[in-house]
Amino acid sequence: MPDLAHVIREISEEMAQRSDRGTVADYIPELARVDPKNFGIAVIDAEGQAFTGGDSDTPFSIQSVSKVFTLTLALGMAGDRLWKRVGREPSGNPFNSIVQLERERGVPRNPFINAGAIAVTDLILSGHEPREALGEILRFMQFLAQDASITIDERVAASEKRTGFRNTALANYMKSFGVIDNPVDYTLGVYFHHCAIAMTCRQLATAGRFLAHNGRIPATGHSVVSAERARRINAIMLTCGHYDGSGEFAYRVGLPGKSGVGGGILAVAPGKASIAVWAPGLDAAGNSHLGRVALEQLTQRMGWSVFGA
Ligand code: GLU
Fold first, then answer.
1. What is the mean pLDDT of residues 64-81?
2. What is the C-alpha to C-alpha distance for residues 219 and 200, in angstroms, rounded to an integer?
3. How far is the CA of 107 from the centre of ligand 1 (A)?
4. What is the DSSP letter of 87?
5. Measured distance CA(301)–CA(266) in Å, rounded
6. Mean pLDDT of 214-237
């Protein structure tokens, strides 16, 4: 087995030097200010040992990576009832597509495209004040990452609120079909804020550990979800975690993963490791370009693909 510390060091060095860095998201103005030269990686193995490289302790906007955790929370609240509001099929469409929603009568394809994640957030919000729902999500992240210092970047949340016309359209459209229960402004407020949670690669990899270990946090033995649920969340990450780049990610990396337009990716090597990478420049599908390249190298060299060595 190759030496993981050595592999991470080599990958980090190569990523720091590459000139193909993708394009930083600018439809949320605050994200456009992030330096595309950043690159960070954190891998936490089954024993809990952390291997890190580059800017692994710099907080970044987790954006859609938060959708893995809101899905986990919503499944805990509603169980399989959740699947009445949102499907489980890859969309084959961009993350913010409206077209499919019209054809499918307001029911989003999966919980990881924007429409689906907004419907999931709405479910978490029901019966709560927006502030309470948001506190619940943030505390869940802090608990999983074992770090109470994790916060929401209010500037990013405000920036997205100011410019989130497309998400507002999606939410109103779903509301017209009865898929959204709460006032659209409340649901979107919670959604924009959980997307604006700022975390480091190290914190994110720690938070994802339960998905790599049958629903349990190995360090504490604490069960976050059942093994069956962890397996199913991983399945949705594999098939839907990278929007219309999900097939390419499975082909190249071969792990369940979820990306965000902040340039982060959480990837899960079941039984082996939880991995977070961050490189802010995105590819055409809105996924981190060098994040994907780094993960491809890591899984190939470690033989971690779920599809075989
Ligand atoms: N907050 C972003 C949006 O709704 C999340 C998109 C992403 O990270 O892919 O547009």
1. 97
2. 19
3. 18
4. -
5. 18
6. 96
* Known catalytic residue at 67: yes
Which of 95, 204, 283 should be mutated for ligand 1, with most atoms under 8 A from CB? Answer: 95
Q: Which residues, including other chains, have CB under 8 Å from residue 302's CB and lie 6 or more apart?
A: 1, 2, 4, 7, 269, 272
- Ligand 1 centre distance from Cα of residue 64 (Å): 5
H or E stretch covering 44: strand 40-45
Domain boundaries, the chain: 4-60+200-302, 64-197
Instruction: Render pLDDT for 34-54 as a digit per residue (tens, 0 to 9).
Output: 999 999 999 999 999 999 999
pLDDT over 90 at 8, yes or no: yes
In the set 65, 190, 224, 261, the catalytic residue is: 261
pLDDT tens column, 261-305: 999 999 999 999 999 999 999 999 999 999 999 999 999 999 999
Fold category of 4-60+200-302 in CATH: Beta-lactamase (3.40.710)
Whether 19 sits among the annotated catalytic residues: the reply is no
Question: In CATH, which superfamily holds the domain spanning 64-197?
Answer: DD-peptidase/beta-lactamase superfamily (3.40.710.10)
CB 268 within 8 A of CB 257: yes
